[in-house]
Design brief:
By secondary structure, the chain is α+β, with helices and mostly antiparallel strands. It has 13 helices and eleven strands. It folds into two domains: 128 residues, Phosphorylase Kinase, domain 1 (2-Layer Sandwich); 224 residues, Aminoglycoside 3'-phosphotransferase, Chain: A, domain 2 (Alpha-Beta Complex). Helix 4 packs parallel to helix 9. The radius of gyration is 21 Å and the shape is globular. The mean pLDDT is 93.
Length: 362
């Protein structure tokens, strides 16, 4: 896979054609059919069936998903455009530098990736997973067994790059984009939390200054013993399922180094019904920890006080959904996810736990 900088990257779906694909894939593309276009998400996706003649003259077919900033409405939102630029570029670097080294985890195949900072566009060309897989829907929940498979995938990801640091030369580019993104998303608090058309939130959330302080403290007090490579946004809508219904993860725009419990709580809370989460979350936690150790990560116990603290503290992982505008995700999805995350934060008294925890050491 190549990564380039170019000011000829498409910015609209109709610009993704045979001539551009020929150039970036280094294949003589003769025919392109756009089979689907999805723009109502943080990144747009153009699904393409492309044909080319191989060296013997036989026609070959590629099924592609071209992902990038293709929605002008989103790309001109003043509160989010800088954030989106960071996210698009991060995913490209993930597929170039990280994906080839992963083990015990399935990731989509990438054919090409390119970025142009001046144009504010970044594109990755992936395999079209829809030919052999279905996709998760975050508005719907998963079974307990599906969630166990999902956290096993996360354990593989985390164990592959556990205890790495962005302070090293190899991972210096892997700065924490998640914290920056969330703090950017808190700015229009009155619109995303207090407005009448938003989901119901606890009374204490009405205080923007208080909640911003809680979020900042959560970020500043991560336990360094549990840091590693995380997906950052592993909700059910960012999964692809094989024919047996087993989920794996896609969309690595927010991959970074953080607490592994961020990914764990974010996925299991968002993927289970509130009732199933309450009944089985310790079972899922134990399953995840066993897989983490089996795949080469540390041996941790769900009964360890620091593990329980990190688990409860990271219920705040779902705050991003509570801050997501309907222009970026459909309202019914935001409402479904907020119900699950808010319930988990209330159940585990997450806000008070973070407020009462010791401040980060200077």
């Amino acid at each position: 896979m190549a990564i380039t900088t170019s000011k000829t990257l498409p910015s609209l779906p109709e610009e993704v054609g045979a001539s551009w694909l020929t150039k970036v894939l280094n294949l003589p593309i003769t025919k392109v059919e756009q089979t689907d276009i999805i723009l109502d998400a943080s990144a747009g996706k153009v699904y393409i069936t492309a044909s080319y003649d191989d060296d013997s003259g036989a026609e070959q077919t590629l099924y592609l998903c071209v992902k990038g900033g293709f929605n002008p409405q989103i790309m001109t939102m003043p509160d989010y455009v800088q954030l989106l630029r960071v996210l698009y570029t991060r995913e490209i670097k993930f597929f170039q530098n990280i994906a080839p080294e992963l083990r015990n985890v399935n990731v989509p195949k990438a054919y090409w990736a390119g970025v142009d900072p001046g144009q504010f566009q970044a594109i990755v060309i992936l395999e079209d997973l829809s030919k052999e897989h279905t996709f998760g829907d975050c508005s719907k929940t998963m079974t307990l067994e599906q969630v166990k498979v999902g956290v096993s995938q996360l354990a593989g990801l985390h164990s592959s790059k556990f205890n790495i640091s962005s302070g090293s030369e190899e991972y210096s580019w892997m700065t924490n984009v998640y914290d920056f993104a969330i703090m950017q998303m808190t700015e229009p608090w009155e619109v995303v939390i207090l407005a009448d058309n938003r989901p119901p939130f606890p009374e204490q959330w009405k205080d923007k200054v208080k909640m911003q302080a809680v979020i900042k403290k959560h970020f500043a007090t991560r336990d360094p013993r549990y840091l590693g490579l995380v997906h950052g946004d592993p909700h059910a809508g960012n999964t692809f399922l094989d024919k047996s219904g087993n989920p794996s993860f896609l969309d690595f725009q927010t991959a970074h180094i953080s607490s592994i419990f961020h990914d764990l709580t974010y996925f299991l809370i968002g993927a289970l019904t509130v009732e199933d989460r309450r009944a089985h979350e310790m079972e899922v936690l134990e399953h995840y920890l066993s897989k983490l150790h089996r795949f080469g990560g540390p041996a941790l116990s769900k009964d360890d006080e620091s593990v329980q603290f990190e688990y409860k503290k990271n219920m705040l992982s779902g705050i991003g959904w509570c801050l997501t505008p309907y222009e970026m995700q459909r309202e019914y999805k935001v409402r479904a996810m907020c119900e699950r995350y808010v319930a988990a934060m209330v159940d585990h008294n997450t806000i008070d736990i973070i407020e009462s925890a010791p401040d980060a050491k200077a």
